[in-house]
Amino acid sequence: MRIKTSVLILSLCAAGAQAQAFKADSVQAPARKGAEIIVPAAGSLVINAALTEVLKHSVHELRPDRSENNSFPSRHTSWAFTASTVISNELYRYSPWWSLGAQAVATAIGFDRVVERRHYASDVVAGAALGIASTELAYWISRRIFGTRSAWNAAGPVNDFRPSLAVSTGAIYNFSGEWCTGFSTAIEARLPLAGSWGMAASITGSTTPIKHNGRESQPLNTFGIRAGVAGHFTLTSLSPLAVEPVLEAGAARLLPTEGFDFPSWGFSGRAGIGMSWRLTRNFSCRGTVDYTLLTTPHCNSGIGVSISSVAVF
């Protein structure tokens, strides 16, 4: 499954075009000089490139396709999440669709690197973390240079419970010794019903390299759909922070994988707890830790960690 770069760029542009659906958010940023945009963006690329190359030339991990020994971390994924985080930092206050679109494209690039056996999922997870961390470090340095204030330190709008749509990127640390770290993504919807509780639904995808008879083989790729309940509990009546428990169950389909003859459908479920931060009236960031269960090709469970960009309606 090769994802063409042109398709990814068009996807991001389409998401950005939805910006007109939202007017300017209630949290307005002060006017910024060109240098205040260029310096952190360029700094993100420099820091990311330096850290990525140092790790690539010091860890010497063999790629899954055994072509080279510079698999860790994924350079493509690291670059993609650097760009995604810069776009989100600069444009989230105008429309949440910029952040969702950028994260979706970066996640698709990482997913493709594992499916094509150019990287292990752990390489991709490390690349994503490196891209996000290097960008946030560059913005932190820039704020010290120009004396500007971080959006994270500002008092955001109240994190009330409203319908939302999120793009999530995560890692699955499987308990089975044969299953390596998995890379996951999801489109998640939440709909309030009564008080602090509502419906949750998600379309999920994961790619997980495994060891079969002691040897690394083709990754297992699954797609599924889950539904359940979600809670939303604002920490205080005026807080931009909220705790969000979630419980979902559904079905997952295992895509055909060379060398395996397993049932193609199975049960998929998760129970997790998240923390969301409302940055603008229509945009939140969310971090989630959950317990996941998958019964195809056989029963396996693990701990999932994910980050999400959330559009709030």
Which structural traits does this protein have?
5 helices, disordered N terminus, 11 strands, two-stranded antiparallel ribbon, eight-stranded antiparallel barrel, flat, 313 residues, alpha+beta
Shape: flat
- DSSP strand count: 11
Strand content: 25-35%
Query: What structural category arises from helix and sheet content?
Result: alpha+beta
H-E string: HHHHHEEEEEEEEEEE
Mean pLDDT: 87
Q: Poorly predicted ranges (pLDDT <50, ≥5 residues)?
A: 1-24
Counted by DSSP, the helix tally is 5
What topology emerges from the helices and strands here?
Elements (H helix, E strand, L loop, with lengths): L4 H13 L16 H26 L15 H17 L4 H20 L5 H26 L17 E11 L7 E13 L2 E12 L2 E2 L2 E2 L3 E12 L1 E2 L6 E14 L10 E16 L2 E12 L5 E13 L1
Antiparallel strand pairs: 1-2, 1-11, 2-3, 3-6, 4-5, 6-8, 7-8, 8-9, 9-10, 10-11
Helix pairs in contact: 1-4, 2-3, 2-5, 3-4, 3-5, 4-5
Please explain how this structure is put together.
- The chain has helices spanning 5-17, 34-59, 75-91, 96-115, 121-146, and strands at residues 164-174, 182-194, 197-208, 211-212, 215-216, 220-231, 233-234, 241-254, 265-280, 283-294, 300-312.
- 43% of the residues are buried.
- The strands form two sheets. The chain has an eight-stranded antiparallel β-barrel. Strands 4-5 form a two-stranded antiparallel ribbon.
- The longest helix has 26 residues, at 34-59.
- Strand 9 (265-280) and strand 10 form a beta hairpin.
- The two termini are 33 Å apart.
- The chain contains five helices and eleven strands.
- With 313 residues, it is of the alpha+beta class.
